[in-house]
Amino acid sequence: KKVAERYGLKLSDFQSACRQRSVARPRQLAMYLTKMLTPKSYPDIGRAFGGRDHKTVVHAVKAIEELKGKDSELAHDIDFLKRMLES
């Protein structure tokens, strides 16, 4: 929910099949944060995000890990969202 609010999206956007970067990247970020901050498995996270395959979640986590080293704005968003979610 916090990621959707941060990017001006609806929760339903995270479960949709939309592949536009403006939706896909925040969805990947939400999957990444879910994996990092909860004990949920890849299949559980995939089901929560519209029935996606666990491989999609693995890809999302790897993609965000790679991008956060290259994109300072994304790294800032990750830190900001983590602080919000952990408090």
Features:
87 residues, mainly alpha, globular
Ordered list of secondary-structure elements with their pairings:
Elements: H1 2-6, H2 11-15, H3 21-37, H4 42-48, H5 54-70, H6 72-86
Helix pairs in contact: 3-5, 4-5, 5-6
Question: What can you tell me about this protein's structure?
Answer:
By secondary structure, this protein is mainly α. The protein has helices spanning 2-6, 11-15, 21-37, 42-48, 54-70, 72-86. α5 (54-70) packs across α6 (72-86). The longest helix has 17 residues, at 21-37. It is globular, with a radius of gyration of 12 Å.
For the largest beta-sheet, the strand count, sense and barrel status come to: none
> How many helical elements?
6
Low-confidence stretches: none
Radius of gyration: 12 Å
Order of helices and strands: HHHHHH
- Sheet-strand content, in percent, reads under 5%
What percent of residues adopt helix (DSSP H or I)? over 70%
**End-to-end Cα distance:** 15 Å
**Structural classification:** mainly alpha
User: Shape, please?
Assistant: globular
